[in-house]
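Team,

Forwarding the record for the chain on the shared tracking sheet. I've put the sequence and predicted structure together so nobody has to dig through attachments.
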Amino acid sequence: MPRSVSSKNEGVSPVIGTILLVALTVVLVGIIGAVLMGFGMAEPAPILGISIGQQGNIITVTHLNGAELSAGTYEILVDGVNKTTEFGGTVDFGPGITLSWDSGTQAIGTVSVVYTDTSGRETVLAQKNIGKAGSGIIVDPKILSSAGQTFLISDAVWGGEWQDIRDEANATGSITLPNNNVYYDDEYHWWAITSSGVLPYTLSEAEAQTTSNITLFTELPLHDEWIKIDSSKVLTPEDGTPYTYSGGGILFPTTIVKGTLFCKDSILYVLDHSTGTTRFESEATSGTGWKIIGALVSS
């Protein structure tokens, strides 16, 4: 009978094949790792609170709290132009430090603080629209203009500018927004309407980061009570007819909607009534109704 003959080379090919597969896998892993490391991991932006403000022609940038920014890692831009040196921003920027710049008669739009990490990636840490005219005239958010008349919002009902409110919420974690106040955002004034059962709202840091304007804020649940004040016209007693009422009443020919302005005896009122009204009564300024928000300063 023929004998089976074993060969020394039996099993060599499978072993070589396995070794080649392992080697190929190692090479591929190395290539992929090198490519991924070449892209690098994104460096997280520093966490801190910054407030951008204005006092006359002086523009200020204040570090409220959080991480310190080393000199050279941040820039202060005014309408996209680097003004870091003018602000004195050649120093480490830490909590409690305020950098300032006298803008003189220069027009100022948007002021931004931009951080650059070690890979060159830029992050906007804070931004605010100042809105100062080039003549050196300051756009005062408490001034409300309509049809050639100028009114000044009373400090008693002034809630503040929306960007300042967002800055504080980002810096402190939250901020309470009282009702019966006037707020300002992007050339418009808003009234936090009074309504039964509606409590002052607390704006959280997370909400402040997603609501860049009051319009977005009013789209949050239960915030449709905030109304944009209609400054296209200011009603006067001549727009209605007097009727007998303690303190003097005005009867209008049509229903007046919420957010409408009315001026009588140089006092400015806004209608705080969800269903509107057909009359004005001087003494009806508590609860929902006509609310005093300011006074006439020129016409």
